[in-house]
């Protein structure tokens, strides 16, 4: 009886802690949405927590996308996040397959070299990267931004795929080889169809990383046609702070929607992917 009471108390304490954490996250989001509904005059004439007198969200969205030319960086980041993460995941899955199932000589040493890309902070690459991009005419180009996003996300993807593929039994692969399948046929028909969970979690993680990047966009882009969304958002904050706060809040709201939608669509694979990552560590 005492054990049951103790368990119930622990569950209640845990529930209260989780509830407080949820509130701590939701309260800023609530004020973000609330201010996005207001006009600049409404915001200036009332407290920021006051209910809006009129619904101005669509007007604010129109202003952000058209007047501030926010639509181009928004589409740029969608392009970088989708293609950058997908290309990175594809090549990383091939690398993980080769390192674990093809019995390559020195496979662990090759993996360590790739994985070492996760060790050093990105800041140490910025100056040589900037000079190299100027020399190769990749500065302020979409191709240059896409290439660095692919390169910077590959080490973690290889790390996840290697750990996942090591847990897959070799029996199916050996049976496929007996049936005459080539390595690429084994990859596309057996390995890839059974890898949706790590693919989904990497799409979320790496897509979020690319979408939220600020420093690479600041260093390697210089125009609105190439600039990612977080750089455009920082410029929006610099220009409209103190002038039109609802526009800034609307820009912040719009910048978070794609990642939220992606998490909602792939949420059932999120925990499974986290388990794969944790098991590898």
Present the secondary structure layout:
Elements: H1 2-36, H2 40-45, H3 57-67, H4 71-101, H5 107-115, H6 126-135, H7 142-166, H8 171-178, H9 183-191, H10 196-211, H11 215-220, H12 229-240, H13 245-265, H14 270-280
Helix pairs in contact: 1-13, 3-13, 4-7, 4-10, 4-12, 7-10, 7-14, 10-14, 12-13
Can you characterise this structure?
The protein is mainly alpha-helical and 281 residues long. It has one domain (63-280): MetI-like (MetI-like fold, Orthogonal Bundle). Helices cover 75% and strands 0% of the residues. The protein has helices at residues 2-36, 40-45, 57-67, 71-101, 107-115, 126-135, 142-166, 171-178, 183-191, 196-211, 215-220, 229-240, 245-265, 270-280. Helix 1 packs across helix 13 (245-265), helix 4 (71-101) packs antiparallel against helix 12 and helix 7 (142-166) packs across helix 14. The radius of gyration is 24 Å and the shape is globular.
Task: Tell me the number of structural domains.
Answer: 1
What is the averaged pLDDT score?
Answer: 84
The count of strands amounts to 0
Residue fraction in strands: under 5%
Oligomer: single chain
CATH topology: MetI-like fold
The DSSP helix count reads: 14
- Uncertain stretches of 5 or more adjacent residues: none
Order of helices and strands: HHHHHHHHHHHHHH
Shape descriptor reads globular
CATH architecture: Orthogonal Bundle
What is the C-alpha radius of gyration, as a whole number of Å?
Answer: 24 Å
Distance between the termini: 39 Å
CATH class: Mainly Alpha
Largest sheet: none
What is the percent of helical residues?
over 70%
User: Which structural class is indicated by helix and strand composition?
Assistant: mainly alpha
